[in-house]
TrEMBL record:
It comes from Pseudoduganella buxea. This is Phosphatase PAP2 family protein. CDD domains: PAP2_acid_phosphatase (cd03397). Pfam families: PAP2 (PF01569), PATR (PF12951). GO terms for cellular component: outer membrane-bounded periplasmic space. The keyword Signal applies. Residues 192-313 form the Phosphatidic acid phosphatase type 2/haloperoxidase domain. The keyword Signal applies. GO terms for molecular function: acid phosphatase activity. Residues 1-22 form the signal peptide. Keywords: Signal. PROSITE patterns: PROKAR_LIPOPROTEIN.
Length: 622
């Protein structure tokens, strides 16, 4: 019992500890002898093999302009899916044979190409003044500066620490005739003792990061060279290149740089992981709205950015730097915001109209839309996802309590289906859905054991998985942290709580299998009835905590048998719900009930348990 709970008992005497009693009429209220069996362990841990293709992370240094084709340049090969849509005039980065105009090269999929260019025509025709301004700022500001606002409430602290500057603070009156370049310092000052390591890490994550080799290999013109109906933002007309032979559109360099910087900041400050990813894709979409790039261009920029970032993240030369960047970023930001490891996440999501990324539902929809830009699948959609070597490192700070293989399993279980244009690359970079991966598993295969450590704070102490989790595997929670499950889940291998707190935040949070609470706590905050698809078992030394938000809104509905071998039941009331004295409230229903609780705690009330052959109700006495 917590200190706060103990004080409540002593001061108000309104919280009653009840020994197991109730029943009557022949109802069995005898204790269960012996512990019931836990759900069967699947007997294996999911293994996510490496793709057969040579790994980007092992060959990242080949992404240089001196390497001519996809056979020798790993960056060019990562974008190989584009070759199914467009055949360059010559498969070399030698641009002397290319005019930079649409009449050189061959469109291999006319429908996708037309959709690609029409998207830009439509977007630039409908472009608002506010969108034109945002497109200008993301074009002319250094990308490492412009995307920092994705940190929301943490933006001011980050900029104060990084000492980042920019000379582009708005759209100049003469921008339609004068090209302005950012004279600021990009990510910031790399030499400050408090934050310099963060700036150095961001800069280091762009090593071998040029899009120029791929641009010069694929030789795909910019959209405004394909159609005069593409309306480049007037303030960006001076930025249009006059040398088309060195100005390919695919992939987008701005999108690539912006997403690499977003990944770096998400890694260093994972409390805003998803928001930073969305900000990176917003910068990319602004390239389309500006008329400078097409959807396929910015999709290619994102795909290549993920590979480049992972390559640098896995480079042993950056191992100490990335750890220091994470530590220094948190030390500084927490000091500036008056937070600690366990309160920073809440502060980072303080509701504010100034935070464009405050709505998670909108963020998710925008991220998914920008992954495919509405293109249809042009190949089979049922090809199993591959996870590139080293991609799991992207999730190191966001899911720190999982091991590397578990993070690979998360990436595979949340990847997009196959078949979309550009996205079916040899390793699997294109299909990675990092926004969804930050929300945990999409499916359990084999035995998934999660061990959290509340003493370490942050995500080790508390996290939430929001995906709909399927599969045939089993989830086991150990340790001392709290893991909340929000999805419409359907996995069938069962759930076991041996330590910590597993929070059921949806009516189907626990899937379709058996649930076994051997230690720690199962906490139900489900808005309605928490459905347990199989059997339920609870052992002595464990706790079931139910937050009831209304009559029967909080009921644990067990489709099989509920076996209560002791333990504690705690009943709380939330969302302003106040039970009526003299009324009884069902808290457990089952096909059959065996055993009783050793202790029942009802917050704020005296109460009596009433057992039946198929469940338990609580009568509020006063």
């Amino acid at each position: 019992m917590s200190a706060a709970l103990s004080r409540s008992v002593l001061s108000s005497a309104v919280l009653l500890l009840l020994s197991a009693c109730g029943g009557g009429g022949g109802v069995d209220v005898s204790p269960v002898s012996g512990a019931p069996a836990a759900p069967v362990d699947p007997g294996f841990v999911e293994n996510v093999p490496l793709p057969a293709a040579a790994a980007f992370v092992d060959n990242a240094a080949s992404n240089q302009q001196s390497f001519l084709t996809m056979d020798v340049n790993v960056g060019v090969r990562t974008l190989a899916g584009f070759r199914e849509l467009w055949k360059p005039v010559t498969e070399t980065v030698d641009v002397s044979t290319w005019s930079g105009l649409p009449d050189q090269g061959t469109v291999l999929n006319d429908a996708i190409h037309r959709q690609n260019i029409q998207y830009v025509i439509d977007a630039t025709t409908r472009r608002t003044a506010a969108q034109a301004t945002a497109a200008y700022m993301d074009d002319r500001q250094n990308q490492a500066y412009s995307i920092v606002d994705g940190l929301g409430p943490l933006t001011a602290a980050w900029r104060a620490g990084s000492k980042a500057t920019t000379t582009i603070t708005g759209v100049p009156a003469d921008a339609t005739t004068v090209k302005y370049d950012d004279g600021g310092n990009g990510a910031g000052d790399p030499n400050t003792p408090e934050f310099g390591a963060v700036v150095r890490m961001i800069n280091a994550m762009r090593n071998n990061g040029s899009t120029e080799p791929s641009k010069r290999y694929y030789k795909y013109p910019r959209p405004w060279r394909w159609s005069a109906d593409v309306l480049v933002a007037p303030a960006l007309v001076p930025a249009k290149s006059q040398t088309p032979s060195t100005d390919g559109g695919f992939p987008s360099g701005h999108s690539n740089a912006g997403f690499m910087n977003a990944l770096s900041m998400a890694y260093a400050m994972p409390e805003r992981f998803q928001e930073m990813l969305v900000r990176g894709t917003e910068l990319a979409e602004n390239r389309v709205l500006s008329g400078m790039h097409s959807p396929l261009d910015v999709m290619g920029g994102r795909i290549l950015a993920q590979a480049i970032f992972a390559g640098n993240l896995n480079d042993p030369a950056n191992a100490a730097l990335k750890r220091q960047a994470y530590d220094d970023a948190h030390k500084w930001v927490m000091a500036q915001t008056g937070t600690n490891a366990n309160t920073l996440h809440a502060y980072a999501h303080t509701p504010s109209t100034a935070d464009r990324y405050a709505d998670r539902t909108v963020n998710r929809a925008n991220y998914l839309r920008r992954m495919t830009y509405g293109f249809p699948q042009i190949k089979a959609g049922n090809v199993a996802a591959s996870v590139p070597k080293g991609a799991e490192a992207i999730l190191e700070t966001r899911l720190p309590y999982l091991d590397a293989m578990q993070r690979r399993a998360v990436l595979r279980s949340t990847a997009l289906p196959s078949g979309y244009p550009v996205m079916d690359d040899p390793e699997g970079w294109g299909r990675l859905n990092l926004f969804a991966a930050a929300d945990g598993y999409g499916a359990f295969t084999g035995n998934v054991v999660v061990a959290m450590d509340a003493a370490r704070g942050g995500f080790y102490a508390m996290d939430a998985w929001r995906n709909d989790i399927g599969g045939g595997g089993k989830l086991t929670l150990k340790g001392s942290g709290r893991l909340a499950l929000h999805g419409n889940n359907s996995w069938v291998g069962g759930t076991q709580v041996d330590g910590g707190t597993l929070e059921a935040a949806s009516n189907t949070a626990l899937g379709a299998g058996d649930v076994y609470v051997g230690g720690g706590m199962l906490a139900s905050v489900a808005p309605g009835q928490l459905v347990i698809g199989g059997n339920y078992a609870q052992l002595n030394g464990s706790t079931l905590e139910i937050t009831m938000n209304g009559a029967n809104a909080g009921l644990i509905a067990v489709r099989g048998t509920a076996t209560i071998a002791g333990g504690t039941l705690r009943l709380k009331f939330g969302n302003g719900f106040k039970p009526q004295v003299g009324s009884s409230y069902a808290v457990l229903s089952a096909g059959a009930r065996r055993g009783v609780y050793g202790t029942i705690v009802v917050d704020g009330y005296k109460a009596t348990p009433e057992y039946s052959a198929t469940g338990l109700t609580i009568r509020i006495d006063g």
